[in-house]
Amino acid sequence: MSRIQTVVSDLRNGLGAVKLRPDVKKVTLMFSRKSDNAGARYFLRENMPRIQYNNPAIEFEVKKVKEPGVSPELTVEFANNDIKKIPCSRIQSSDICKQFLSATTEGSA
């Protein structure tokens, strides 16, 4: 398998490789490079590419804050202007992804 085939296969499979609800409008990940933000950084590197690949119509934004002490947070905006905030402080990336998918896939409303 070539390197490109491996990358595409990884994007299509694994945690986060799902279609989100059609009313998800925007996803914002905010974190600092310091303190307890490792889960958010790993989520950005491991899970967010899969989510973006499988949901090209949704806007994704990443805010890396330089000041320490900022609590990492994943914010989901829906078409009806509802906002769901998922705190990411001291949580592993897989748990962040599971909480995100619970709030944004068809089974939830």
Automatic annotation (TrEMBL):
Keyword Ribonucleoprotein: yes
Keyword flag Nucleotide-binding: no
Originating species: Mortierella polycephala
GO MF annotations, alphabetized: structural constituent of ribosome
Keywords: Mitochondrion, Ribonucleoprotein, Ribosomal protein
Protein name per Swiss-Prot or TrEMBL: Ribosomal protein/NADH dehydrogenase domain-containing protein
Subcellular localization(s) per the UniProt record: Mitochondrion
Coiled coil segments of this chain: none
One GO CC term, this protein: mitochondrion
InterPro entries: Ribosomal_mL43/mS25/NADH_DH, Ribosomal_mS25/mL61, Thioredoxin-like_sf
Principal place of residence: mitochondrion
Occurrences of domain Ribosomal protein/NADH dehydrogenase (ranges): 34-107
